[in-house]
């Protein structure tokens, strides 16, 4: 079976597809060819209101179910997603341009992992009991209420599930707004949750541009906002949420360092640098785009990297042999090309790529710059495309300081066979996720999120429960009440 790219309607509210074509048109474009594969419509203010009202109505009964019951629904949704992995992956490939080789293993499967994991945790939610002599205190772990999720365009299914699964496990309901660039898959997540038994209104999807997101964030019925996006958007959303004293989770951008010492396995380090820069055509927030290679192995690293780049297979993303897709949009390609031009202008040495392949679609070559200096634009700003910058370094102290000299703090990687040095390095690195002798593995069991400007809060792992629930403290007196008069 193949899903049609044109969904039944643009929005999913209160358990049903809903359309209102008075909202601005949202063309959905297949990035590999530039063809329009669907047209959706932005939610009108009235539709946003309807989605929030549905979430509000559904929330008390959803929270009143036992964790076991909610968890069973989430785990059933995980099973349905796995059973439909191929159709969901094909849809994700058409929506994002990412090769099917990737989407088959990294998108619906990762979403299903989150539904399964938080489905399992739902039954374990609890407060604590604190004895105070004869009196005692207990805490109740309660839902926050109605939550808003806002997603970026690189991992649409994963982002929807990483937010919905813990939110729903804790008894919240959600209105989710995907990026308007990739609006299709979240609708499938909504369909599947309903089919798995989530009551209407528990998970709703509204489409739209930034202003729909802004309306959601500002609404006083909303208790929590979780955004995956860029730092500038994060600033706006965090400020808007702050004035309503709403809880937030901010998963934002990065400019992460990948540090390779002389004693590292060269082959593994090259593999990690490839994964950390070219997977999903470089459109990954945690990418290790600043690759620091110690002086002794730098030329060997660049030579091996150039050889390995011959293995790039760009082409039809639906062909499972293809391992490199286009950029998500023309706009994004132009942004990345601007950075490539700046890299050359500012004196970095272009050692691979840099060009635009012939033909339709938003293609760009995997690009590597060597001799990059810390103050160059490509060394400081998030590019969000397939552009690797390689830096030299001499000592551990020097590279640690340079690796941390950024406003971002999402991720970092260290390659070395010296265990003490690896642990010393990660202790010093200012990043929410660090990897030793690998890169970009983000299992749902492990907390994920940024330090510094890269974010607030954590997704995944048991700690996510803290970010999707609140405690109520109850003091119980067993004796008489004393008063001064
Ligand atoms: P954007 O910040 O442009 O957009 C993110 C989402 O926010 C979109 O749905 C967008 O809608 C919406 N939005 C924009 N303005 C507002 C507003 N004022 N109020 C509410 N919502 C708003 O990010 P991109 O989609 O371009 O994604 C790329 C960025 O995401 C990169 O910086 C990347 O690092 C980061 N990212 C972070 C991840 C993480 O987990 N840390 C993972 C993946 C990506 P619209 O698109 O319709 O404008």
**What ligand molecules are bound, each kind once?**
NADPH dihydro-nicotinamide-adenine-dinucleotide phosphate
Structural class: alpha/beta
Number of helices: 16
Radius of gyration: 24 Å
Describe what you observe in this structure.
With 485 residues, this protein is an alpha/beta fold. Helices cover 39% and strands 21% of the residues. The protein has helices spanning 45-64, 67-83, 85-96, 100-106, 108-122, 156-169, 185-196, 210-218, 231-243, 266-278, 298-309, 330-345, 377-380, 396-404, 419-428, 464-467, and strands at 11-13, 16-18, 25-30, 35-41, 129-132, 135-143, 146-150, 173-177, 203-205, 222-228, 247-251, 257-260, 290-294, 349-352, 367-370, 387-393, 408-409, 411-415, 433-436, 451-452, 455-456, 469-476. It has a 7-stranded mixed sheet with strand order 14-15-16-13-12-18-19, with helices on both faces. A 6-stranded mixed sheet has the order 9-8-7-10-11-21, with helices on both faces. It has a 3-stranded antiparallel sheet with strand order 5-6-22. Helix 6 links the parallel strand 7 and strand 8 (173-177). Helix 2 packs antiparallel against helix 5, helix 2 crosses helix 7 and helix 5 (108-122) runs parallel beside helix 6. It is globular and about 80 Å long. The mean pLDDT is 98. Bound molecules: NADPH dihydro-nicotinamide-adenine-dinucleotide phosphate. NADPH dihydro-nicotinamide-adenine-dinucleotide phosphate is lined by residues 150-154, 177, 179-181, 209-210, 213-214, 217, 228-230, 233, 236-237, 251-254, 285, 382, 384, 410, 450, 455.
